[in-house]
Amino acid sequence: MDGWIQILVSGLTVGAMYAVSSVSLSLVWGALNVLNMGQGAMLAAGGYIAYTAVMSFNLPIPLAIVVAVIVGALIGGLMYFLIIRFMVGKEGFETNVIVATFGFALVLENLVLRLYGAYPLRQPIGLEGGWYIGATHVPYQNLLLVVVSGALMIVVAYLLKTTRMGRSIRATAQNRQATELMGIRISWVFLQVLLIGGGLAAISGIMLSTLTTLSPTMGYDPMLKAFIICVIAGLGNIYGALIAAFVLGLFEVSIQFIFGVRFGFPALLVLVILALVWRPYGVFGKRKTERL
Amino acid sequence: MLSLSDIVSGYGSQSVIRNVSFDIPESGLVTIIGPNGHGKSTLLRTISGIVRLQSGEIHFEGQRIDGLRIDQIVGRGVVHIPQGDMLFPDMTVQDNLLMGASLVRSSNEIAERRGKVFALFPQLEERKDQTASTLSGGERRMLAIGRGLMTGARILLLDEPSLGLAPVVIEQIYKIIKELNDDGQTILLVEENVSRAITVSDQIYLLDDGRIAWQGTGEELSSEKNLMEVYLGV
After folding, report:
1. What's the ipTM?
2. Cross-strand pairs, B10
3. Which residue does chain B place closest to A182, by CA atoms?
4. B79: which DSSP letter?
5. Among A25, A28, A67, which Cα is nearest to A47's?
6. Is residue A114 classed exposed, middle or buried when 0-12, 13-18 and 19+ CB atoms within 10 A define those classes?
7. Burial annotation A160-179 (CB, 10 A radius, 16+ → b, else e)
8. Around Cβ B126, how many Cβ atoms within 10 Å?
9. CA gap A104, A108 in Å, rounded
């Protein structure tokens, strides 16, 4: 029984972290057709900015998190102004932007490496203590991560569902030219989505670094997992990505608990292959049909 | 109101529209007819800024609009309802209509416009919470026109509103187009259904290979038996 509680707690915590990162990736992908290879580096940068805000500027933790989210969003904005705005509407956009955002990631990662070095650092943000369910220790930190992730998802869903900006983002995802014909300036939508994506990546980085450590390459694994989750859910399907993040988090932790840690990731990949054989357009994706 | 002066446009270095000029007066209903693939839709796409103008000028209410971004042209009141409707399939009817009012800040104004659209198309009000992908062809066309009206268009560029619809629905759509025009809405219509367009248009232009090959009223076109047969197969 205790083992299952442990799986549930760890699985939900991992799922919560995957969820924030996946929703960020999925939002940018779904609305803009941009596979943001800079996501991992942006995530790491978010963690380091929060670290700096606390350690170097002695900011209270909530304020440090706000600063990290704002700077993370600005990094997303920087990506738009330096790279993406020059590529939108050009031939080969979807492929070229993958390479360009990867280049952006390398610059950002090396900047972090230069500023902070390669040694792992301990994130000062976090909650001590926990409680026991039976013999299972449930850290407050894990609970906080699940709650924060849930609250963030509610905010993102509200933003997309009910606001004018969210409607424009959803419209752009469905038909970019029709959105322009409604008088929406597409470049603003791109900027808005990248700002939100950057902010979410920063939060994801802070969350991850509270459970592990800070390192310049800490974002690659979550980015890969977020990519897998987005593919399983169906490209650009935000709500699908959210569900898939928690399901895969629980699945990975279960496999690790039952068969050993080293089997977690391979099992995840097997699941991806099976899911894509079953539904090549993703579990929550829609089959694309074309009129002849 | 809308004035095209010697415009040439197309895709890449290829010209599709060649030296087309005409004016549309305020509250007018002008129709472009012509065989398939001769540039009718490209002409509308050029006016709305989707297709690049290679030469010539487009003026709207005395101001030059060629060279502006698509959203800026819409902001001036030139609203294009393209062929195939281009709805947002996963959004509700209500949200599709609200997208049309993206540039409107006043919620009262939005509610008033939506009320007018629902008065014109009661089916849309009944289906306001359904996603656009679940609508019938006729309802989708109504939604596309309704969404265009939500923008507060000064001129509507309507691309083949009868395409693929049942005769009874075409009648309904054309009744609405006539009503809108009678209420003062300026409309530039592209249509292959010549017999239907003749009945509503003030002026008709025949586009052949990207050039205006003939112009006149619906009555004059009806008497041009040779033209109707050669170009339009009527």
Report:
1. 0.88
2. B15
3. B100
4. E
5. A67
6. exposed
7. beeeeebbbbbbbbbbbebb
8. 12
9. 6
For A242-292, what is each residue's pLDDT tens digit?
888 899 889 988 999 889 888 988 998 898 888 888 888 878 877 655 444
At residue A34, what are phi and psi to the nearest 5 degrees?
A: -110, 115
The C-alpha atoms of residue A166 and residue A286 are separated, in whole angstroms, by 21
CA–CA separation, A86 vs B234, rounded Å? 49
**Up-side HSE of residue A138: CA atoms within 13 Å toward CB?**
19
Closest CB to A175 among B79, B88, B95: B88
Of the candidates B25, B70, B26, the residue with the CA atom closest to the CA atom of residue B48: B70
The two tokens of residue B47 are 């006016």
Domain ranges in chain A are: 2-125+132-278
Residue B207 β-bridge partners: B212
Q: Which residues of A touch B91 (CB under 8 A)?
A: 167, 170-171, 174
Task: Give the closest of B74, B82, B89 to A183, CB-based.
Answer: B74
The candidate with the shortest Cα–Cα distance to A197, out of A17, A20, A1, A18, is: A20
Q: How far apart are CA A56 and CA B93, in angstroms?
A: 52
CA distance B149 to A147: 44
State the pLDDT at residue A1. 67
List CB contacts (< 8 A) between B103 and chain A.
Answer: 183
pLDDT tens string A149-173? 889 888 988 898 889 999 999 999 8
Query: What is the residue type of A247?
Result: V
Name B234's Cβ contacts closer than 8 Å, sequence gap at least 6. Answer: B194, B195, B228
Residue B217 Cα, gap to closest chain A Cα (Å): 30
The beta-strand segments (E) located in chain B are 2-11, 14-24, 29-33, 53-60, 63-64, 78-81, 155-159, 186-190, 203-208, 211-216
pLDDT at residue B137 is higher than 90:
no
Report all structural domains of chain B as residue ranges with CATH numbers, in order of start.
Answer: 1-76+202-234 (3.40.50.300), 77-185 (3.40.50.300)
pLDDT in tens, B49-71: 999 899 999 999 989 999 899 99
Strand order in the sheet with B2-11: B14-24, B2-11, B53-60, B63-64
pLDDT at A222: 87
Q: Does B46 touch chain A (CB under 8 A)?
A: no
CA distance linking residue B101 with residue B7, whole number of Å: 30
Residue length of chain B: 234
**From CA A89, how far away is CA A102, in angstroms rounded?**
19
Chains A–B, number of C-beta pairs less than 8 Å apart: 61
- Asked if A255 and A267 count as a contact pair (C-beta separation under 8 A), the reply is yes
Domain A2-125+132-278 has CATH 3.30.390: no
Q: Which residues of A touch B (CB under 8 A)?
A: 164, 167-168, 170-171, 174-175, 177-186
